[in-house]
Fold this protein.
Amino acid sequence: MIMDRKNRNIMAECYVDTAVINVLLGYDGRTSGIMHGKGCNNVCRFLKEKDGFAIGIIDMDKRQPVFSQEFTEEITFGSVRVKKHPQRPQYLIFIYPAMDKFLLDLSKESNLSPKDFQLPEELEEFKTVTKTENASTNENLRRFIKSLRHSETLTKLSTVITYILNNPYNADLKHQFSN
């Protein structure tokens, strides 16, 4: 029997966001991992309907769900904005541009080629891998993300999420991560 070890406090918007957060937190994406929301509206609905602690990860799209406007910015680094709800122990992490392009940009900064991981270098072709249901378990994509994990932005993203998870009700991001 396979145990379901989903982290029920974290939800990401799309398949590639889910894959990135799973890799950063050490989940395998098969038997363990974060929840997948299938769109920013669903992630915001998850946060709005949840009574306690939660983290949502969404791309910074042109149109943001109304509920996301209730969150106030705590910290910004690289292409990441972390916002907190003023009355709830809930966090919303915005990635911009969308995660697909974000990863390709990081690969250029890190002098890594997606081709070295049997992945396309061009954005539209790369999306054919990242926009599929199996993105979180695609071994080539997971190895690519793992290689990017050492970039400054993904290292800090991992540190911030871990800090929030360890301090769900009293995280002080501004103090902890002030430059």
About this structure: Helices lie at 15-25, 40-49, 99-109, 123-130, 139-148, 152-166, 173-176. DSSP finds seven helices and six strands in the chain. Strands lie at 5-12, 32-36, 54-59, 72-77, 80-84, 90-95.
